[in-house]
Amino acid sequence: MIKVKISELKKGDVIAEHILNPEGQVLLAAGTALTDKTITLLKLWEIKEIRLREEKDTDDDIRLSLQFDEIVAKNSKLFDKIKKIADGEPSPPELPSIFNKKSSEQYHDISQKFSKILLDLEESTDIMPLKVMANIICHYAASTVGVLAYTLKRESTFSRQENLVNHSLSVGIISAKIARLMELPEEVIHTIVLGALIHDIGKTKLPLDIFRQADCYSSEEEIIYQGHVQAGYNIIKSLGLPREVNLILLQHHEYKDGSGFPLHLASTKIHPYAQIVAFANFFDSLFHEKKTPPNFFAIRKKLTQDGANKFDTAIIDAFDHYLESFVFNVNVELNDGRTAEVVYNHPFYMSLVVRTLSGEFIDLSKNKDLFIAKLVL
Q1: 152: nearest Cα among 315, 293, 252
Q2: 219-233 b/e with 16+ CB inside 10 Å = b?
Q3: Fewer C-beta within 10 Å: the chain N or C terminus?
Q4: Which conformational region is residue 359 in: left (phi greater than 0), alpha (psi within -120 to 50 degrees), or beta?
Q5: What is the reported pLDDT for 75?
């Protein structure tokens, strides 16, 4: 495998690794033989150089070489930072943020518009505003860097309507992100988001005390709570929505091990779109429906380990890979109260290196008394 400048590419050269855009989407897949058109596209995308496959290369050779390059690149960035501090360069006064004002304002505007659409849905048969909103969210999820952070940052309120809107919007965004990571077609992503936006509309029929609970504490309350699925279907069944959207609503609490509700379906009976929304719903609920502050890293572990019995592994793997990249340059709070930035992830044993506000680098794999308590968003 060799690195070649774009100006030196020839028709018939074979790409050794995916060419990605800033959002992580595949522009050209590994193994693609270049044509005059694709070489022109690479120049338009302002890509300076790429890796090409050589005749002697095997798939294992390429995979190991790319892994090695990734490790070297990450270590290089880390030690460049350490060297600058050692040479006396002052630490930045504050840690970087993945938030920006424009995206935050867009998120608030989308939330306000969606609130009215969801409220009107029970009284109206016009689903066009809902479809337009699904389009907006598909675009927002694809074009906003760190889009997950905007859904995680929100806080619960005493308003049932506001909490339902925020949760449904988050599940829509997370579902869109997962579907895009799995490289599903745009029309499929739109359908999944459409179902995600209305998956919990039946909760408007729940008694307020049960709606506000993080958990149901009696069998009677559990039965009432589970009834929100049927109540939601009763609201949307006459709207003429695609069959897949109806199935998403009906199956968003079904798990592949049969432990879900209302029908305890096995994996073969659960629609693939519903499995994506169920996972997104589970993830968002872990963050926002408990009384204790959420621990991002404990939740990630719960998703990959406990979630393996409940969700398709392809969904888990795609989203966990995104979470791994998401934590870089994200601020965290350590258990001793210090704020730090995640700067490196050990690829082989899932441990992180962080930089504190004072510029100290801490390898959490070597300091067992320290751990990340929560994200600072």
Answers
A1: 293
A2: eebeeebebbbeebb
A3: N
A4: left
A5: 52
Where do you find CATH 3.90.105.10 in the chain? 2-57
Amino acid letter, residue 218: S
pLDDT at residue 93, rounded to an integer: 47
To the nearest 10°, report the CA torsion of 67, 69, 70, 76: 150
Number of Cβ atoms within 10 Å of the Cβ of 264:
12
Residues 278 and 311 sit within 8 Å (Cβ to Cβ): yes
Start-end of H helices in 206-342: 208-211, 219-226, 228-236, 243-251, 272-288, 296-305, 313-326
Sign of CA dihedral 133, 289, 157, 324: negative
- What digits encode the pLDDT tens for the residues 137-152? 999 888 887 788 777 7
Bond into 262 cis (ω within 30):
yes
What size, in residues, is the chain? 377
CATH architecture of 2-57: Alpha-Beta Complex (3.90)
CA triple 281-286-291, angle to 5 deg: 135
